[in-house]
Amino acid sequence: MEPTISLCMIAKDEEKGIGKAIDSVKDIVDEIVVVDTGSADRTKEVALAGGAKVIDVRWADDFSAARNESLKSATKDWILVLDADEVLAGGGCEKIKGAVSGAGGTVGGFALEQRTYVAKAEEGARKNPGPFPDPGEYPFFVPHSLVRLFRNRQGFSFRHRVHELVEDSIRENGKTIKALGCAIHHFSAERGKESTEKKAAYYISLIGKQAAEQPDNPRYAYQMARAFLGQGNPEEARRWFAKTAALDPRYRLVHSELAKIHLKKGEMGEAKECFRKSMELHPDNPSPANNLAAIHLSMGEYAEAKRILEEALKKHPGHKILEHHYQEALRVLKQKVGA
Questions:
Q1: Under 8 Å CB-to-CB from 115, ≥6 apart: which residues?
Q2: Is 251 helix (H, G, I), strand (E, B) or coil?
Q3: Could you tell me where in the chain the CATH 3.90.550.10 domains are found?
Q4: How do 31-36 and 5-11 pair as beta strands?
Q5: Residues 77 and 55 sit within 8 Å (Cβ to Cβ)
Q6: Which residues are registered as beta bridge partners of 10?
């Protein structure tokens, strides 16, 4: 017997997108659960028309709480989580059906790639290869790996008020997470600038609540920093990145984040020092070494750039970007010798 799937969603005033989200997966799900947190538009009517079971839940400034309410009403073997501004396409449904059918007993969930489409090549963005969505209309996307497909009735639950995750819960219950080559297409930018800015400000308020509740948690300090950076406030971002580093120096690449802020301010010495620190703390990650070498190259310090890159290439042979910068340093140094 084939495993069954419950689609679980939370929504508020999403009448424009929720129908598309449901339609994109309706052929592979056996149940649709929508938690509505106070819609004033036709969200509930559209969801009901799509075959959903709609549950009203009072909003409590907590995305995980709402997500977990949707899980309580799911009755099938697996949970698929989508937001109302997301869709699956391009064979994604077939991959999901195959994944749940072939999952071994130790697999608790699958990580999918959420592609958030943006108009400009911002940090971390990649070119949209198409065919869906149209690269002309959606030229870039920012990828994030998120567990959106996981077993039901295993004690798994979401955590954190905002940027909620189920990953820790899956691992703590002794299950593994596998990557699934499947994209979730996220169209949050279609909400418009005013709505996007309002959402960003609200997210900062929720992250701030978490940071106040758990002041020693580096995750929340880091999220505050990223949120302020996204709002164009590098000084507040720097302050929160510094707090993150004080709480846990190895949390992500926090010293690299500090270095980038110094770099934008033209504080080259401070930027170098932060990238060096990041190299020490993350010796298996080539990014800090590459960024440090790039600064030395930009300042004409080719011998030092060459030294850094040689050391990095010993650990990461064949790394394309490191190799590119290394060849640039060699070329200039050879020109100087021949001059």
A1: 128, 141, 142, 143, 183, 184, 185, 186
A2: coil
A3: 5-191
A4: parallel
A5: no
A6: 35
Q: Tell me: the pLDDT tens digits for 117-161?
A: 998 888 788 999 999 999 999 999 999 999 999 999 999 999 999
So what's the architecture of 5-191 in CATH?
A: Alpha-Beta Complex (3.90)
Which range in 106-115, 197-206, 225-234 is most confidently predicted, on average pLDDT?
Answer: 106-115
**Phi, psi of 321, deg, nearest 5:** -70, -40
One-letter amino acid of 181: G
Q: Residue 180 gets which letter from DSSP?
A: E
Q: Residues 6 or more apart from 257 whose CB is under 8 A from it?
A: 225, 229, 237, 241
Is 329:305 a contact under the CB 8 Å cutoff?
yes
Separation in Å, CA 120 to CA 101, 113, 126, 130, 139: 39, 19, 10, 16, 7
Provide the CATH number for the domain formed by 193-338 in this structure: 1.25.40.10
Cβ 6 vs Cβ 74: under 8 Å? yes
pTM of the full structure: 0.86
For 109, phi and psi rounded to 5 degrees? -165, 170
Q: Determine how many CB atoms are found less than 10 A away from the CB of residue 179.
A: 11
- Provide, for the chain, the percentages of residues in helix, strand and coil under a 3-state DSSP scheme, each rounded to the nearest 5: 50, 20, 35
Q: How far apart are CA 143 and CA 76, in angstroms?
A: 29
Q: What is the DSSP string of 88-136?
A: E-TTHHHHHHHHHHH--TTEEEEEEEEEEEESS--TT-EE---SSS-TT
Tens digit of pLDDT for each residue in 51-82? 999 999 999 999 999 999 999 999 999 999 99
The CATH 1.25.40.10 portion of the chain extends over: 193-338
Residues contacting 139, CB < 8 A, separation 6+? 119, 121, 127, 128
